[in-house]
Amino acid sequence: MNTETSLFIFAGTFFAICFGIVVSGIIWSRRFQKKLEADPERKRQHEERIRAGENGLRILIYGGVVVSGFWVFGKQCYTYLRYGEWVPRSVIDLMEMFEVRWAMSPDDWIGLHKVLDWTPMSVALILTGIVLAAFPD
Q1: Which residues contact 116 (CB under 8 A, 6 or more apart)?
Q2: Number of CB atoms found within 10 A of residue 5's CB
Q3: What are 112-134's pLDDT values in tens digits?
């Protein structure tokens, strides 16, 4: 059996498995929806679980933002203590990592660009995570 044939068999098998998962998911979803509609108490419990999961995901994301802010600050401290040189990281550096054109070469809102360039990335991440966690809606 040559490489093309084995690749074709692998791709076909992979497609069939994915298709089966999608179809069974649709069938299971419809059956589950009918059971929920028949039992209002079960539906209420299901909705509470979904809300709890969404809240948990929010906490995980916001906590991740705060932790990343502390990580940036810790990395800066480590670099300073090890090599004796402070490596400043600003919000503009973060925006440049995500290739925001305005951050790379601003032609408007120059003052805002300067303020963001003065704002430490670690402080911005920590405050953003705390504000998002404090006001989730």
Answers
A1: 90, 91, 92, 95, 103
A2: 9
A3: 999 999 999 999 999 998 888 87
Q: Which helix (H) or strand (E) holds 19?
A: helix 3-38
SS3 for 118? helix
Count Cβ neighbours within 10 Å for each residue of 90-106 and write b for 16 or more, e otherwise: bbbbbbeeeeeeebeeb
What does each C-alpha distance from 9 to 1, 2, 5 come to in angstroms? 11, 11, 6
> 109: phi > 0 → left, psi -120 to 50 → alpha, else beta; which?
left
pLDDT reported for residue 43: 75
pTM above the 0.70 mark? no
